[in-house]
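In response to the reviewer comment on reproducibility (Comment 2.3), we provide here a single inverse folding case reported in full, input and output, so that an independent group could reproduce the run without further information from us. The structure tokens appear first.
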């Protein structure tokens, strides 16, 4: 029975990460991204070392150093839970490949384990990025014994299971009783919006129930008790408490018993996950059938075939595809707006917004515009619209070769589509800057101009990356975004390139004041834009023979 399960897991992984149809150029892109990433890895580790050292030296004299690991486990569990929520929804219910395995003699729990393999890879990568640096640095700072590291490795292996199983059990029960067969497309959009709204709601609820005076009074009581802060922080989430105590008490009976409690709880929860999956997964999955067909009204059809300029028709077609396809709408529009909306709500509920205005008042004009520019280009660069420009077409991409327009025009219209969608994000950022950061009109105007140019750059470069190595052989829209590192590669390149530019201008004595800083950034953006356009033209010439 287990051999069947392992075989199924291997097959599903191979289907996800098969190299069939992929070019070797992706390896070079990954190598470039890795090179850009190296300096930031050292920066990240150095930052963690400083944080852990300062916290340990401050909390160790009063016997509260265990709260460092408690906060770490609470944070990782929360992050992995929300990651699991999104990946389970997409992988378990909104992909079509599961239908291929139904005729085979697999139990529902085996299908469930096969589908869970890919989400677990993402969880372990995230877990390694967040947990391992803190874990090793805390061990070094606290002069931990060998038992600490043994317990830590076991906790690392077990850590993703708890948040994943919690999220999976909740979703499987909900999907069992919610029939999405009648409107699968709408269900995808609603599920994504509800998930993001839930995160915002939790943050709002926490902030509304935060009594600063009460917390201050209780803090004095907690620090007088050994591990008092740890007990308070993990009071409502026992897994984090037992994992923390298994590390801080490593080598003692208390640590061993806590580790055994973690193992027993994980096994029990995982068994419950398999049992619930055996009972509900396929029933919920069969509810996630195909969407209903819609009948187009006669007047709507006549309006749709009205003659328009080519560029207007093409961009309207792109926008309709994005807004009418739930997976594209979630990835290209809703998720890109989540971060600024989340920040906006947090700042609106904060009574000390003057602190942000004071923060910018303490910066020079050069420093202000540099920070605004760097933040905006990272947010604009993570928009998936341009990074999926070609891949969204799938196998229909080659139909474009028969259109009476050139490939250069098609790419230009796709870049324009991504730029237009970025205007929504730019508008939100300008609202935050105007009303919450209380920036002057001069700063807002300069920032807006830079964002318009930067948006065109990120749209152009994202389209170039996708045009260089598109994913055209997908069977479900989610596959356009899954198992691809293109957004991460783009982010590293933007951060490496423009982070270096910001660093140079920041430390340059010859560039000072708003005008010179603005002019320097704009010249750099124009030059990079020109370079990317040259790259696109050369890529068109290199691929032209394949499209004839």
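Designed residues, in position order:
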């Amino acid at each position: 029975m287990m051999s069947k399960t392992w075989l199924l897991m291997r097959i599903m992984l191979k289907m996800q990460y098969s190299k069939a149809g992929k070019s070797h150029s992706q390896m070079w892109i990954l190598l470039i991204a890795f090179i850009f990433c190296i300096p930031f890895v050292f920066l990240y580790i150095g930052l963690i070392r400083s944080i852990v050292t300062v916290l340990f030296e401050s909390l160790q004299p009063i016997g509260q150093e265990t709260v460092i690991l408690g906060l770490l486990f609470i944070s990782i569990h929360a992050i992995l839970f929300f990651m699991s929520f999104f990946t389970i929804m997409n992988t378990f219910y909104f992909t079509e490949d599961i239908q291929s395995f139904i005729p085979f003699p697999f139990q529902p729990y085996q299908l469930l384990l096969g589908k869970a393999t890919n989400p677990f890879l993402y969880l372990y990568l995230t877990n390694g990025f967040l947990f391992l640096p803190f874990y090793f640095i805390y061990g070094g700072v606290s002069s931990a014994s060998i038992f600490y590291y043994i317990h830590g490795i076991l906790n690392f292996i077990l850590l993703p299971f708890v948040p994943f199983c919690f999220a999976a059990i909740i979703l499987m029960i909900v999907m069992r009783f919610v029939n999405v067969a009648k409107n699968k497309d709408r269900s995808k959009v609603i599920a994504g919006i509800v998930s993001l709204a839930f995160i915002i709601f939790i943050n709002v609820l926490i902030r509304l129930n935060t009594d600063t005076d009460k917390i201050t009074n209780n803090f004095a009581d907690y620090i007088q008790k050994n591990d008092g802060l740890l007990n308070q922080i993990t009071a409502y989430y026992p897994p984090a408490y037992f994992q923390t105590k298994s590390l801080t008490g490593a080598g003692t009976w208390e640590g061993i018993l806590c580790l055994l409690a973690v193992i027993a709880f994980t096994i029990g929860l995982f068994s419950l996950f398999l049992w619930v999956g055996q009972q509900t997964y396929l029933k919920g999955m069969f509810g996630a059938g195909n969407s209903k067909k819609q009948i187009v009204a006669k007047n709507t059809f006549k309006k749709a075939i009205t003659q328009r300029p080519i560029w207007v028709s093409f961009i309207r077609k792109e926008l309709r595809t994005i807004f009418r396809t739930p997976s594209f709408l979630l990835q290209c529009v809703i998720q890109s707006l989540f971060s600024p909306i989340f920040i906006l709500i947090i700042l609106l509920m904060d009574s000390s917004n003057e602190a942000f205005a004071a923060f910018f008042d303490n910066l020079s004009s050069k420093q202000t515009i540099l920070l605004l520019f760097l933040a905006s280009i990272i947010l604009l660069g993570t928009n998936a619209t341009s990074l999926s420009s070609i891949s969204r077409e799938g196998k229909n991409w080659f139909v474009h070769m028969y259109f009476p327009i050139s490939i250069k025009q098609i790419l230009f219209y796709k870049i324009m589509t991504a730029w237009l969608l970025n205007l929504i994000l730019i508008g939100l950022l300008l609202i935050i800057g105007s009303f919450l950061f209380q920036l002057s009109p001069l700063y807002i105007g300069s920032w807006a101009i830079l964002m318009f140019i930067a948006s065109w750059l990120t749209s152009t470069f994202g389209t170039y990356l996708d045009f260089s190595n598109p994913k055209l052989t997908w069977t479900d829209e989610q596959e356009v975004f899954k198992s691809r590192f293109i957004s991460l590669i783009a982010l590293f390149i933007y951060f490496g390139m423009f982070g270096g530019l910001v660093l140079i201008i920041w430390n340059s004595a010859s560039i000072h004041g708003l005008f010179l800083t603005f002019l320097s950034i704009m010249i750099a953006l124009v030059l990079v834009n020109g370079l990317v356009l040259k790259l696109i033209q050369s890529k068109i010439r290199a691929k032209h023979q394949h499209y004839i």
